[in-house]
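Project outcomes to date are best conveyed with an example. Our students and postdoctoral researchers have been running inverse folding experiments weekly, and each run begins with a structure described purely in tokens. The record below, which covers 132 residues, was selected by the lab manager from last quarter's runs and is presented without edits.
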């Protein structure tokens, strides 16, 4: 009598699929100091959210302002795409922020001139987005 595997599926050939990691991205959180700027609505000037960055952890992200609702979420796609594009070019996060400030127009919003500020970490910016 031939030896039989304990589990017949172990007798099958194994196949591995290579999964692409997707586009390059900055880390989306850091406990290191960050620089950020405010994005305001082109209609009325209300704050839609914040773009922050930290070179120490190669981190950067868009944080929508809770009170701005769907408009902030929709605008986030534009700023996220710009961050992704900068990372793809190998640009450090702080330079990505500078590039965005030099070309401040988004879809529904724009970078607020003079709003570049410092925060203790990414969570501080998230708290700012919730508290307003």
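After processing, the design step wrote out the following sequence:
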């Amino acid at each position: 009598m031939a030896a039989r595997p304990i589990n017949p599926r172990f007798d099958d050939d194994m196949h591995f699929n290579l999964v692409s990691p997707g586009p390059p991205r900055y880390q989306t959180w850091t406990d290191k100091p960050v620089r950020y700027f405010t994005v305001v609505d082109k209609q009325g000037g209300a704050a839609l959210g914040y773009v922050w960055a930290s070179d120490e952890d190669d981190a950067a992200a868009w944080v929508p302002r809770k009170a701005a609702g769907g408009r902030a979420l929709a605008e986030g796609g534009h700023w996220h795409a710009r961050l992704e594009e900068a990372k793809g070019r190998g640009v450090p996060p702080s330079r990505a922020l500078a590039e965005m400030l030099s070309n401040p127009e988004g879809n529904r919003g724009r970078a607020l001139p003079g709003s570049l500020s410092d925060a203790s970490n990414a969570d501080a910016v998230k708290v700012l987005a919730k508290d307003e």
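The CA atoms of residues 101 and 113 lie 8 Å apart. The chain has a mean pLDDT of 90. The training component of this project remains on track.
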